Amino acid sequence: MLHLVYQSPLHVQLLARISAGDDVIFLSSACFDLVQNSLFSQHLNAYAASINCYALADDMAERGLISAALNPAITLISYAEWVELSVKNATILSWN
Q: Could you read off the pLDDT of 46-62 as tens digits, one per residue?
């Protein structure tokens, strides 16, 4: 399953609903909590081994967030890679 996360406050509740092997893309304002020292980043570390976490590179750049400050569990992806993940996953949930 592919989860599209658009807003910050949903993160912690979302993590409890994600299954092992799911793909999660953080977009829009959700990108702000992906830096290494954020509270959410600490929660994410507990799940990182069992889920695949991504952030749209353009959204990160648009917000002035550099990849060096990212949680290492996050992989930056392009729009083309987002499409590939969408094709790979039969079910897509958007979290707004």
A: 888 899 999 999 999 99
Q: Where are the alpha helices (DSSP H) in 3-78?
A: 11-15, 39-47, 57-62
For 69, the token pair is 């400050």
Class of domain 2-95: alpha beta
Pairing of strands 74-77, 92-95: unpaired
Residue 58 burial (CB count, 10 A): 14
Check if the beta carbon of residue 55 is closer than 8 Å to that of residue 70: yes
CA distance linking residue 23 with residue 89, whole number of Å: 8
57 within 8 A of 34, measured Cβ to Cβ: no
Residues in contact with 50: Cβ distance below 8 Å, sequence separation at least 6, in sequence order: 20, 21
pTM exceeds 0.85, yes or no: yes
